[in-house]
Amino acid sequence: xxxxxxxxxxxxxxxxxxxxxxxxxxxxxxxxxxxxxxxxxxxxxxxxxxxxxxxxxxxxxxxxxxxxxxxxxxxxxxxxxxxxxxxxxxxxxxxxxxxxxxxxxxxxxxxxxxxxxxxxxxxxxxxxxxxxxxxxxxxxxxxxxxxxxxxxxxxxxxxxxxxxxxxxxxxxxxxxxxxxxxxxxxxxxxxxxxxxxxxxxxxxxxxxxxxxxxxxxxxxxxxxxxxxxxxxxxxxxxxxxxxxxxxxxxxxxxxxxxxxxxxxxxxxxxxxxxxxxxxxx
Amino acid sequence: xxxxxxxxxxxxxxxxxxxxxxxxxxxxxxxxxxxxxxxxxxxxxxxxxxxxxxxxxxxxxxxxxxxxxxxxxxxxxxxxxxxxxxxxxxxxxxxxxxxxxxxxxxxxxxxxxxxxxxxxxxxxxxxxxxxxxxxxxxxxxxxxxxxxxxxxxxxxxxxxxxxxxxxxxxxxxxxxxxxxxxxxxxxxxxxxxxxxxxxxxxxxxxxxxxxxxxxxxxxxxxxxxxxxxxxxxxxxxxxxxxxxxxxxxxxxxx
Amino acid sequence: xxxxxxxxxxxxxxxxxxxxxxxxxxxxxxxxxxxxxxxxxxxxxxxxxxxxxxxxxxxxxxxxxxxxxxxxxxxxxxxxxxxxxxxxxxxxxxxxxxxxxxxxxxxxxxxxxxxxxxxxxxxxxxxxxxxxxxxxxxxxxxxxxxxxxxxxxxxxxxxxxxxxxxxxxxxxxxxxxxxxxxxxxxxxxxxxxxxxxxxxxxxxxxxxxxxxxxxxxxxxxxxxxxxxxxxxxxxxxxxxxxxxxxxxxxxxxxxxxxxxxxxxxxxxxxxxxxxxxxxxxxxxxxxxxxxxxx
Lengths: 281, 254, 294
Description:
heterotrimer; A: mainly alpha; MetI-like fold; 81% helix; flat; B: alpha/beta; Rossmann fold; 6-stranded mixed beta sheet; 4-stranded antiparallel beta sheet; 35% helix; 26% strand; globular
């Protein structure tokens, strides 16, 4: 199908080898700079810990890493981690459910679009700490707080993506389907669902990051367990080492979930978008 | 045998925000097509060519007048090739083909592959549209239109978005498949030369959407674009086209 | 977290709002579509929901109660006993901290973002660090800052700076990287000098994402400030809310939390949106259309 690569004359081949070498050098140079960046990050941490502050105020990286390793081996970690993640997932699913209704309203009704978009925009701008503190008053210390807040905060993002997926559907594909006599159901499953699903999935990574952080914040204020509570406990007992270790685990988990779950899912579902069909990593 | 009867067809678009005056795309067009002929409709932009096809395909409604596309007295099955490929980007090529099929079976997949082969695309069935070039995507669009075994084939400037060489090769594919299948075809274009290459009959529209001229193209097939007879005919049709342009410019089209 | 996405999402949300068609005619239907009416309706609904919650949960104060309490608080009247209203003092303290934090964090983050976006090795060097800092929850910064600086103002300021820098850096670097390569080629072919390229091409091209970074920075910076003040401060609006919470005077506590929201909304409407409108005169951006409509 694609045109065959013409056999290159000598000069061009020498040239392309040079180009290739340069590209390889550039790639390794970049990798080196990334390594240097990490080294600098850890180095600065050591310097701040030893010279600017004291190791009590900012424990050195290896101390925090050891502490995190110890936490990992304790049963406590599994329990708190499970509590946190289940809440975030629950809030997330609730938000997804709410978004289907809201997204359809935004996409297909003008008045509701105005009303909801303005309200959702407002919701986005509310400082998350307000939700966290208010849930302490309204719900008390309960797992409902993190769940509800994760839902409230992620709903605008998911709804928005869904509505954009629905309104952004290519009209011409609909006309094509009509010309070929497709039924309404076939158009929904063939065009509307894939378009909106992909759009929603594009936003879930961000929504998850937001939910994960709001869940944590709410746990800090109003929860009987979870990573957030552990961070607060460490803070209240001036245990900076423990606090940073929990924070480190929190970040690692968040980045792992983002990269292993969501990025893969996105890649799987958007194979059609890339010119190589998603074959290359 | 398929017939397309177009009687006094009128289409007026009401004013919109972007365009506050109403637009008349078709102004009482009448023509009839009978049998397995390839009819080209040529006209400048704004002469309602796409509108005509959309109404025949049942995608748009006429303001007045009627269109009947019949096959042995029952509504004809339509295959449509659009200006752009209009493939579902998230479906593979073969799934795009099967999307327009009513029954899904091994047989329909084999049929899809057969038509893909006819447009020279036998090994792309499982690729996504984004992995194909523009010309290849358009060939899938052509194969899709033939796959539904249409009684009437509608072609809306399918070659106009392609570069000259790709367009020519696609016209050759089109001519070859048409010679094998002999479907009643309604081909809309602004390009007189490609109309002469493919059509048995050329209907010229003037701005405002009425017929200006009806020319029979009586040339043997398969035609080659560099055949002197084809060249002569192209010159002849172009002359008439220019004459229409002059007539329109000088207000003689009342 | 990907803040390019956040940018697109915010812009998209705004553009959806803008896509609601032309100004409605002054009929009953048109009246129902007026932005102020819709805003009022949303506000009314919110208050209604709150009132309902306060009936269900007796601990939660009602709207009237909150309004009365906040009136006393703002006018400096007596809350009974030795407690008198305090509003302007905590507000001034917090706004000062917020302003100083932003004044340090925004330029630092912007410069960092420009360097990361424009220089290849700098991207390798700093990108991961910025992403880790971004992933670190604000509450951890808040705790650290208050443990390091005790009750002084530097804790809240540092927390604002530390949350703002990665947000600005990520958005600006994305903006710089997204500058149309065709325009960059054009500039090079015309031999436009570096300074002018920086000003017109990089600065102009990254302006949209810079504004998103700014908006997100304003939001998250405010959030961090409130957290630090809640946990480790004896002044400022966050402390005041905590004060009433500890005193079990919930109308004051909730009233202040509502004020947090009102303040950030006002800031957006009065400062960011007009600025944005000026910056994007050349372009009918969707965000703009929304701002005009609101």
